[in-house]
Amino acid sequence: MDPVRNPFAPGAGQRPPELAGRDKEVDAFEIVLERVARGRPERSLVLTGLRGVGKTVLLGELRSMAVRAGWGAGKIEARPDADLRRPLSAALHRAIRDLAVRHRNPERVDEVLGVLKAFALRAAPDGAKLRDRWQPGIDVPVKNGRADSGDIEIDLVELFTEVAELAADVGTGVALFIDEMQDLRPDDVSALCAACHELSQSRAPLVVVGAGLPHLPAVLSASKSYSERLFTYSRIGRLDRVDADTALLAPARREDAAFDGEALDSLYERSGGYPYFIQAYGKAAWDAAPTNPIGRRDVAVAAPEAEAELAVGFFGSRFERATPAEREYLRAMAELSEGRDEPVVTSGIADHLARRASSLSPARDSLLKKGLVFSAQRGQIAFTVPHFGRYLLTQT
């Protein structure tokens, strides 16, 4: 098979050649765009799932839909312990620029940009010297008195209101997309929920679309009890057999190629239906196949190469971030779950390692903060990365 024509593309956040199995989420967001633009009440969205299921890809697809609909759209990636003001300011700056091309009053656009600049400049710590202050790159005068109180909850409500009103002027909306949403600081999560709540009550045309790990709903709920009713939650999981086959067959068909039935059987068994793994095995199988169609033997020949690449780029890079104590904890999880993608009881890990549970708490808490594990439910812990346990059992 010609490697130049290989359609498969494993990569972090990289859109696959066929976005299979996500029609439900795409169709639901289409309705949200229409309803909000018409002044109808609609909740913001939260996508959750393990790593490698395509949350970032889906977030990008929804953002593209918003742009095509004439919305202002901005995207940020939350980072642990990082302030929200800077990335949020950059994202909303982009959204306002999207709206500006349709707005007939440049002075009104500059006024909102001035409010945004005032909000952004509050990112500098009190007492910071001028040379140390972050400059947001917004070339308009600061408009003081709105979104610059220093209280993130007050400022977000005022800023979102200004931007939403600008969108309403042109009969459209604003969508803010937040990846890795579970990494927002508690104060920022609380402020974001409060702002979404305030705007939803006034039916302002602004929605937040967040994506994060499976415990994100618990993070939001711990911040504001009403967050359970504030967002529409969608769990993004692995693909079923039909959609997994489509993810392979549709791109191949466009290149006048195919996979036979046995190859598809093998690919689904090896990938588990996880989109990232489908792309990795599909790419390797294409490159290994001497002729068309791609068969089971080609998949078997290609599998070690795909697994070696996953071991370095997908699993290994995460494992390397763990300290020796954290690696011990991770291996115990893998041994107890026998390499399956299932949660384990935290007390069982202490028993397995013949240690006191309290002595393992620092490693557990650090792994939670690094996003390598999550609390599936009280007293249980699970990997955020599918097949991670299986990978760990192969490491000496």
Task: Describe the structure using short key phrases.
single chain; 396 residues; alpha/beta; Helicase, Ruva Protein, domain 3; Rossmann fold; Arc Repressor Mutant, subunit A; 3 domains; 8 strands; 54% helix; Cyt_c-like_dom
Can you put this structure into words, describing what you see?
With 396 residues, the chain is an alpha/beta fold. It folds into 3 domains: 90 residues, Helicase, Ruva Protein, domain 3 (Orthogonal Bundle); 213 residues, 3-Layer(aba) Sandwich (Rossmann fold); 71 residues, Winged helix-like DNA-binding domain superfamily/Winged helix DNA-binding domain (Arc Repressor Mutant, subunit A, Orthogonal Bundle), CATH 1.10.10.10. α1 runs parallel beside α2, α10 crosses α11 and α10 runs parallel beside α12. It holds the Pfam family AAA_16. Keywords: Heme, Iron, Metal-binding.
Note the topology.
Layout: H1 23-37, E1 44-48, H2 55-68, E2 72-77, H3 85-100, H4 106-121, H5 152-169, E3 174-179, H6 186-202, E4 206-212, H7 216-223, H8 227-230, E5 231-235, H9 241-254, H10 261-271, H11 275-288, H12 296-319, H13 324-337, E6 344-345, H14 346-353, H15 357-370, E7 373-374, E8 380-383, H16 388-393
Parallel strand pairs: 1-4, 1-5, 2-3, 3-4
Antiparallel strand pairs: 6-8, 7-8
